[in-house]
């Protein structure tokens, strides 16, 4: 992670914008150790859940946070209701057995690391309960060092961060945090081996999932005053960039990129292989011939739109690099490692740009039409791409609607619903129908 | 009525100046927020001595940032040097500077920090600073100490029933006739400075809130010295000419008041004041009990009494949230059981004495509150249900008496008696072994040796509690499979099922169902406990149709209900969790324990692993005709037992408490402390003496609107009888039941939740409906609250009608326990006096009589009046108020003033019998107007309750309005006939009558003549059952049992107007005279054959069990009554030749099944007395389980607005088809 921080600092140095100072802070925050890596004890959900703390049924009028966070999390957030409970289900038990784990799923570190807040025993407080699933401190960091001070009069967000509160409001940090499980990182990842054992395919998009979590916070003027100005598009973009980085990091890591004779297959498009043999579904894309394993480039496809808006001068290079990587990985020629490195460096640049870039309505419309255009052009013929594009379109439409820059919100929603219907089931995904739905969407959503 | 304290509850900001008490420094309120450094500074000095503690901030949540002085006040800057020893003067000096000092160091045993014993109003007299110092959670201090974060909860707690006790004060005021407001107006609250206060509801209740049971305000209890009496006892009437010897008159022109002191020897002036009501001792005695006798209290405003296992606790917030060691039984105390029951601490604070009672186990707040902590207050037998939750009830002084009474009779000195009664208000304790705290503490250790019962290990108030076991109706112990357990089986108490709540058996504690709001209240003021509860069975168990929502739905639940899924245990787990279609609950106390909830829907779904056919049948029984035919299953238009019709616990209880009576004898000479408000000593004190606490009465009625008007179990609750001994030790009234403000009898009843839920030992079909075998007539009578004549109260005197006299024979001791002389209890409680009795040949020494004008063939006692039919002498009502007054020479009088001032004689040609619709004192005229009908939602009396009914062999039926005897006005007692009826001479030869609501059953020459007195002054002939020389009858539910020339016979009076002589019910007796039916046995005074006991469990197939004559000692029996005293049943027999006979029917010695609903009688003659002339009649003992008559007329007061016994029509729904014929049930599917 130090590397990323250095790059960002560098970016900040090049920058002449007044956001420079922010960027420096961002760098510190983005570099924060993830909650599972941080020191200090995890004290348990119950301490936050008091009705006088974050367990209020109704928001407080005079508080700068809702104080209902526990209630929202507990009632409707799958981190509370599903993450840990799912480990008891037959499928989870089977996965653990298939993987040859010694413990059942609900006791296996491999599973708990993502399905719960799973600090080592020495860092569990007296009322910590792993059964709470992905509890408060799984994201906000172990509270031992800040729980007493964060309620002090005049305690600031900065004070809290300094004592170890995880900077979830910082987009890069947020992306790293969420993706540490929803995609994986160097410490934990759902490998193809785990999927083979029965784990479902991972599906994630930072902004969409933040909205559907649902958020237990409201980003209002006060929030932005205390923390930072918030731009949902930036979050989406950073999310895409970080996944892409992680993907490339897997490719570049000699250990993680291979599992025995085969490469780590999780970086490839699942549906490239996982379909009945009778279903010969190859279509040309990215210059990759039939019978080749396709890289899961869904995030890279999304980044096309982001690069187009954020680093317009580099769009061509980026597209070529992505194409080259796809080809190299598929064995159509070219040096995988070299291409990946280049792309990785580009992504770093992009990230540093994103840290200070704000997106206006014009950008959003550009991204939207880019997504629709690429889709109609057949870029999302793979399910993973279509899925990402659908979530991205949903987010962009949402941002536009919030800005009041979307005409016909209701018709756009209806069109979006039809698009969603097309990606609801990966096994019955039909690219041509998806494309048709996109065409319809393109007509209405402006 | 005027309250003495009308101060508003002051906001914490309004301060009283500290009046120079040393050490009083007003610390600022604990802040909501502060830095860790700021907080630490407020602990710095404290820790120089206290060194360490269990939870620094009391809160387990590390997010709470507090220093010692934030909560406690005091001066945290004072510190001692590490070298200073505790014995050093410097240590003491630092202590004095750091601590807040008490105003009354001796009362606190300062510098001890243990809660003092029985401190009561000490907190009101202390400085608020000191109160805060010793217990920041005290409600006087909590706004300052806890309010910054918990103000809403503190305020709600101040208004909650646990603080205000409104349900007790209001109930006592209403049921004793002191205040006519069933929406109660009295409650306890104090200001920060300890002055009595009024509490206001945060909003003025509108109609909706009122319907929910919410009250606008509660006012302080007025001092008893200034409240007029409500009791209609003769001593409270105008008079008191000579009372000035005790009550100095001022302004009279003679210095010594000598002119007033013209007391007549033998006819003392017993009136309580020579001025108006609420002067002298002409006051509301129940208020003395509330103020001074420790019944339920102390409550939240005061510390626990801290002297007996089960009495250790703090006050206010800390009363519940800091746990004390009270009970060694882990089912009651959970993880705290190992800390014992002596209130000793296990704190790490080195300055706290470890082997001293009165300290919390730890300096720590918890929500893992064990039931043993709730029990400190919720232990009063008939009112609160932690006992029944435990499966225990109050011990009756009889079971295992040999272990509990000293071998040598105790004669406690006044000093010794006082010392014991301060701890335990039951007077029996001054004679029993358990008056000794060391004995009391280890009563439960006797269990392995005991043969009658098993004791619990908690003894709050100094009481003992016995376990309740599963038994059949005859009292045989049963095991889990329903198989009998032998009475002599040494392991019988292990084999028999202990009827604790199934929830307790799972390891649950009170707080596993009653969450924060049920304890703190929702901020509104309530007067009824059930109205203030948010949880309902269905919230966790669902119903037959729906799975639980985990949202509270009780009367006090917030809109939408509390989301139980959000709750967490103290140890941090979610309390509730659904897993794979199963619902689990985590224990609030045991971090390792969880249990699967039974979901009603599963149990009624065929094919589900939890399916239970019996449950499905009960829950899915169809309503209406289909159900009566036994049809059940899903898909009915309506279910007979649906959740909206009846409370779940109506069936799912295993037993209910029934307090069949307590005796409160007031003693003018006992100067005692007031336990509330300003405290202080005054004269007068009443002990508190449970008489009959049974576990076998299952009764139903209706909840009030707050609980949806659902059918619910009804308990007898606090049926009181009051006595008074004045300063001259004259008993100026004895064992008098009060009358409620509604005019109903105060033998009170109330719907309740017994907390004795079981899965197997529930109620079943034949507990509420006529069984196919027709063997539950008595059960039905009990169920419908018509009474079973079994727990009737025959008190100090048995009232006898003689050939030429009326007579009172003293049959019990006056001291407590008021054991029947010669009885089993008498032998153990009073061995010396028992021996004396045996030496006297079992003859009772004391009786008082009055000559009559003819044979007193029927006598009836109501209140202080004895009604007698006297043949040619007509009907006369005697004043018997002074029956136990040693100062009175003629204790039964016909005219207490002169015949000109009082005439309660009604002449008639040949009065053969007199009967009252109820022998409970009532005052129908009080029950009128909008206050009663609309606000209090009381039913009207049936008009028959205005009258006494007299049979005259020549004149027929005579009605006499007797209401003036119940109005407290001595100048209008002139009785006259209201009506005389004998249409067509059908009542010729009338000689006995039985009243069953509007129907009257007269034994006359024609047989049993049944009259309908729906319009009492216009009787209508309903039917005649021809019988030869019918002599008397007794009524029980559907059957009238008759004594006639041939002996005994039963008449089916299900439809009174269509009676049916039961063919096979005839039992030949040569000389059957009178009949008394108590539960499933009929007792027949059978003349020279003695006392015939007939088993009438199956009224259509009665069985003669025995003719008891005790070796010819009973050979002219004329009348018989039955009553209960403590655990045993007694028969009293009027024997023409030999006088009054007292027969013990059951005792732990003769009948180990004595706790059954109807144990088989084992008669034993224990006492007798010759009467002034041949004994021919007996007055029935006070009905204690009769709330309603056979035609739906309410008799006794019901607590809870709008609740009531069933109407006639509702009673009928349980067993009658629309055409009036009976339908029956079988228990098996």
Your description of this structure?
The complex is a heterodimer of chains A (about 450) and B (about 1250). Chain A has helices at about 1-15, 20-30, 45-50, 70-75, 80, 90-100, 110-115, 135-140, 155-160, 170-180, 190-195, 205-210, 220-225, 230-250, 270-275, 300-310, 315-330, 335-355, 360-375, 385-405, 410-420, 430-445, and strands at about 260, 260-265. Chain A has a two-stranded antiparallel sheet. Helix content of chain A is about 55%, strand content about 0%. In chain A, strand 1 (about 260) and strand 2 (about 260-265) form a beta hairpin. Chain A contains 22 helices and two strands. Mean pLDDT of chain A is about 90; it is low at about 1-25. Chain A is globular, with a radius of gyration of 22 Å. The two termini of chain A are about 40 Å apart. In chain A, helix 14 runs antiparallel to helix 18. By secondary structure, chain A is mainly alpha-helical. Chain B has about 1250 residues and is an alpha+beta fold. In chain B, about 15% of the residues lie in helices and about 20% in strands. Chain B has 32 helices and 54 strands. In chain B, strands 14, 17, 18, 22 and 23 form a five-stranded mixed sheet that branches. In chain B, strands 40, 41, 42, 43 and 44 form a five-stranded antiparallel sheet that branches. The longest helix of chain B has 13 residues, at about 145-160. Chain B is globular and about 100 Å long. The two termini of chain B are about 60 Å apart. The interface of A and B includes residues 45, 47, 71 and 151 of A.
């Amino acid at each position: 992670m130090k590397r990323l921080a250095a790059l960002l600092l560098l970016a900040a140095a090049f920058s002449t914008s007044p956001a420079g100072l922010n960027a420096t802070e961002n760098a510190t925050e983005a570099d924060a150790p993830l909650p599972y890596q941080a020191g200090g004890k995890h004290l348990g959900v119950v301490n936050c859940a008091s009705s006088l703390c974050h367990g209020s049924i109704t928001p407080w009028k005079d508080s700068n946070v809702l104080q209902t966070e526990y209630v929202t999390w507990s009632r409707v957030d799958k981190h509370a209701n599903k993450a840990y409970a799912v480990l008891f289900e037959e499928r989870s038990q089977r996965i653990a057995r298939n993987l040859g784990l010694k413990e059942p799923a609900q006791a296996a570190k491999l599973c708990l690391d993502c399905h719960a807040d799973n600090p080592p025993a020495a860092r569990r407080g007296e009322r910590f309960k792993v059964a709470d699933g992905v509890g408060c401190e799984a994201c906000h960091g172990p509270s031992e060092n800040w729980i007493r001070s964060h309620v002090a009069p005049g305690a600031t967000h900065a004070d809290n961060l300094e004592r170890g509160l995880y900077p979830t409001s910082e987009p890069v940090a947020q992306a790293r945090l969420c993706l540490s499980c929803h995609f994986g990182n160097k410490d934990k990842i759902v490998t193809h081996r785990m999927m083979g054992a029965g784990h479902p395919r991972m599906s994630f998009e930072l902004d969409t999932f933040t909205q559907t979590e649902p958020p237990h916070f409201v980003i209002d003027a006060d929030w932005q005053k205390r923390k930072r100005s918030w731009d949902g598009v930036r979050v989406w973009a950073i999310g895409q960039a970080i996944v892409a980085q992680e993907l490339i990091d897997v490719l570049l890591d000699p250990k993680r990129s291979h599992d025995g004779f085969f490469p780590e297959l999780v970086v490839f498009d699942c549906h490239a292989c996982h379909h009945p043999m009778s279903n010969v579904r190859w279509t040309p894309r990215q210059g990759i011939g039939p019978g080749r394993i396709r890289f899961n480039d869904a995030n890279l496809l999304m980044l096309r739109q982001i690069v187009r808006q954020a680093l317009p001068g580099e769009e061509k290079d980026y597209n070529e690099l992505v194409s080259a990587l796809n080809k190299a990985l598929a064995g159509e020629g070219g040096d995988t490692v070299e291409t990946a490195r280049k792309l990785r460096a580009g992504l770093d640049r992009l990230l540093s740009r994103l840290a200070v870039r704000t997106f206006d309505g014009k950008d959003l419309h550009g991204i939207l039409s880019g997504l629709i255009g690429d889709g109609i052009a057949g870029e999302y013929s793979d399910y993973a791409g279509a899925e990402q594009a659908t979530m991205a379109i949903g987010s962009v439409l949402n941002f536009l609607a919030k800005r009041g820059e979307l005409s016909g919100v209701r018709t756009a929603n209806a069109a979006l619903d039809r698009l969603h219907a097309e990606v609801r089931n990966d096994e019955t995904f039909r690219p041509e129908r998806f494309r048709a739905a996109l065409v319809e969407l393109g007509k209405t959503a402006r | 009525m005027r309250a003495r304290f009308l101060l508003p509850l002051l906001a914490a900001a309004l301060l009283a100046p500290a009046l120079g008490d040393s050490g009083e420094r007003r610390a600022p309120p604990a802040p909501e927020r502060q830095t860790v450094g700021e907080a630490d500074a407020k602990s710095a000095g404290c820790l120089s001595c206290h060194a360490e503690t269990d939870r620094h901030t009391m809160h387990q949540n590390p997010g709470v940032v507090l220093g010692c002085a934030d909560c406690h006040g005091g001066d945290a800057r004072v510190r001692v040097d590490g070298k200073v020893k505790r014995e050093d003067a410097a240590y003491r000096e630092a202590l004095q500077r750091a601590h807040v000092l008490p105003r009354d160091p001796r009362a606190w045993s300062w510098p001890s920090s243990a809660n003092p014993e029985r401190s009561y109003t000490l907190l009101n007299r202390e400085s608020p600073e000191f109160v805060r110092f010793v217990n920041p959670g005290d409600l006087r201090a909590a706004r300052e100490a806890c309010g910054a974060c918990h103000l809403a909860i503190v305020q709600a707690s101040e208004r909650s029933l646990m603080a205000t006790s409104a349900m007790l004060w209001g109930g006592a005021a209403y049921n004793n006739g002191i205040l006519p407001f069933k929406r109660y107006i009295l409650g306890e609250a104090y200001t920060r400075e300890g002055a009595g206060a009024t509490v206001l509801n945060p909003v003025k209740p509108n109609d909706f809130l009122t319907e929910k049971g919410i009250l606008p305000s509660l006012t302080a209890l007025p001092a008893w010295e200034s409240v007029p009496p409500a009791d209609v006892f003769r001593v409270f009437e105008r008079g008191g000419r000579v009372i000035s010897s005790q009550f100095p008159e001022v302004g009279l022109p003679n210095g010594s008041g000598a002119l007033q002191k013209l007391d007549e020897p033998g006819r003392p002036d017993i009136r309580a004041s020579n001025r108006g009501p609420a002067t002298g001792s002409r006051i509301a005695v129940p208020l003395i009990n509330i103020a001074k006798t420790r019944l339920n209290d102390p409550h939240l405003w005061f510390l626990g009494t801290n002297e007996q296992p089960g009495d250790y606790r703090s006050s206010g917030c800390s009363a519940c949230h800091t746990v004390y060691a009270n009970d060694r039984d882990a089912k009651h105390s959970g993880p705290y059981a190992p800390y014992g029951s002596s209130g000793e601490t296990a704190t790490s604070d080195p300055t706290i004495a470890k082997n001293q009672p009165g300290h919390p186990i730890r300096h720590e707040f918890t929500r893992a509150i064990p039931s043993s902590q709730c029990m400190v207050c919720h232990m009063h037998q008939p009112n609160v249900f932690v006992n029944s939750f435990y499966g225990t009830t109050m011990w009756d002084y009889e079971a295992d008496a040999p272990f509990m009474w000293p071998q040598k009779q105790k004669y406690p000195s006044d000093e010794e008696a006082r010392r014991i009664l301060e701890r335990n208000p039951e007077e029996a304790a001054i004679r029993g072994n358990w008056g000794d705290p060391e004995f009391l503490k280890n009563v439960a250790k006797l269990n392995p040796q005991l043969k009658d019962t098993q004791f619990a290990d908690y003894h709050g108030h100094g009481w003992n509690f016995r376990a309740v076991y599963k038994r059949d109706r005859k009292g045989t112990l049963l095991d889990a499979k329903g198989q009998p357990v032998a009475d002599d089986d040494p392991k019988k108490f292990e084999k028999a099922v202990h009827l604790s709540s199934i929830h307790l058996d799972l390891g649950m504690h009170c707080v596993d169902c009653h969450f924060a709001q049920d304890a703190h209240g929702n901020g509104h003021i309530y007067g009824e406990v059930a109205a203030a509860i948010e949880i309902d069975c269905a919230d966790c168990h669902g119903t037959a149709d729906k799975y639980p929502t985990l949202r509270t739905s009780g009367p006090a639940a917030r809109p939408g209900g509390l989301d139980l899924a959000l709750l967490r245990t103290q140890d941090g787990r979610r309390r509730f969790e659904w897993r794979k279609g199963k619902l689990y609950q985590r224990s609030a106390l045991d971090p390792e324990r969880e249990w699967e909830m039974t979901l009603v829907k599963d149990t009624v779904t065929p094919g589900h692993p939890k399916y239970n056919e019996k449950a499905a049948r009960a829950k899915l029984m169809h309503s209406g005709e289909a159900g009566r035919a036994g049809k059940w299953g899903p898909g009915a238009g309506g279910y007979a037992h649906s959740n909206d019709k009846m409370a779940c616990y109506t069936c799912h209880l295993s037993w209910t408490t029934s307090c069949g009576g307590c005796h409160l004898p007031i003693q003018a000479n006992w100067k005692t402390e007031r336990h509330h408000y300003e405290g202080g000593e005054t004269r007068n004190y009443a002990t508190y003496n449970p008489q009959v606490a049974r576990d076998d009465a299952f009764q139903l009625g209706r909840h009030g609107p707050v609980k949806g008007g659902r059918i619910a179990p009804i308990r007898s609750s606090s049926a009181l009888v009051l006595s008074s001994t004045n300063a001259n030790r004259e008993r100026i009234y004895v064992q008098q039941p009060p009358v409620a403000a509604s005019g109903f009898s105060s033998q009170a009843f109330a719907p309740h939740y017994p907390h004795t839920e079981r899965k197997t030992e529930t109620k079943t079909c034949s507990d509420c409906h006529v069984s196919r075998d027709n063997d539950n007539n008595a059960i039905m009578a009990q169920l419908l609250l018509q009474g079973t004549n079994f727990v009737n109260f025959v008190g100090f005197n048995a009232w006898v009608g003689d050939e030429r006299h009326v007579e009172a024979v003293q049959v019990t001791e006056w001291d407590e326990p008021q054991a029947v002389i010669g009885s089993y209890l008498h032998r153990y409680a009073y061995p010396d006096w028992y021996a004396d009795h045996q030496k006297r040949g079992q003859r009772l020494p004391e009786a008082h009589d009055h000559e009559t004008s003819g044979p007193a063939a029927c006598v009836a006692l109501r209140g202080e009046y004895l009604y007698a039919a006297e043949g040619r002498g007509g009907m006369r009502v005697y004043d018997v108020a002074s029956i136990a007054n040693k100062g009175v020479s003629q204790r039964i009088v016909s005219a207490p003033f002169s015949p000109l001032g009082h005439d309660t004689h009604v002449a008639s040609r040949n009065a053969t019998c007199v009967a009252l619709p109820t022998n409970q004192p009532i005052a129908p005229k009080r029950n009128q107007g909008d206050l009663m009908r609309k606000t209090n939602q009381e039913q009207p009396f049936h008009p028959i309750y205005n009258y006494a009914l007299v049979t005259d062999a020549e004149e027929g039926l005579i009605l006499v309005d007797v209401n003036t005897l119940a109005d407290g006005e001595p100048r209008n007692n002139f009785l006259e006939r209201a009506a005389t009826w004998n249409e067509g001479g059908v009542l010729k030869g009338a000689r006995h009558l039985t009243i069953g609501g509007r129907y009257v059953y007269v034994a006359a020459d024609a047989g049993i003549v049944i009259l309908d007195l729906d319009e009492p002054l216009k009787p209508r002939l309903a039917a005649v059952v021809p019988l030869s020389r019918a002599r008397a009858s007794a009524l029980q539910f559907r059957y009238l049992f008759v004594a006639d020339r041939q002996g005994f016979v039963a008449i089916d009076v299900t439809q009174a107007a269509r009676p049916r002589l039961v063919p096979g019910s005839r039992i030949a007796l040569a000389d059957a005279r009178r009949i008394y039916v108590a539960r499933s046995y009929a007792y027949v005074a059978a003349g020279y054959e003695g006392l015939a006991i007939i088993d009438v469990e199956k009224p259509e197939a009665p069985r003669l069990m025995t003719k008891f004559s005790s070796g010819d000692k009973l050979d002219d029996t004329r009348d018989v009554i039955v009553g209960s005293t403590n655990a045993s049943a007694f028969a009293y027999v009027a024997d023409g030749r030999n006088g009054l006979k007292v027969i013990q029917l059951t005792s732990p010695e003769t009948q180990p099944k004595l706790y059954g609903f109807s144990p088989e009688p084992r008669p034993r003659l224990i006492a007798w007395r010759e009467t002034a002339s041949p004994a021919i009649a007996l007055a029935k003992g006070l009905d204690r389980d009769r709330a309603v008559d056979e035609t739906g007329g309410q008799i006794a007061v019901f607590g809870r607005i709008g609740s009531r016994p069933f109407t006639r029509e509702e009673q009928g729904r349980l067993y009658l088809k629309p055409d009036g014929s009976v339908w029956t049930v079988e228990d098996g599917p």
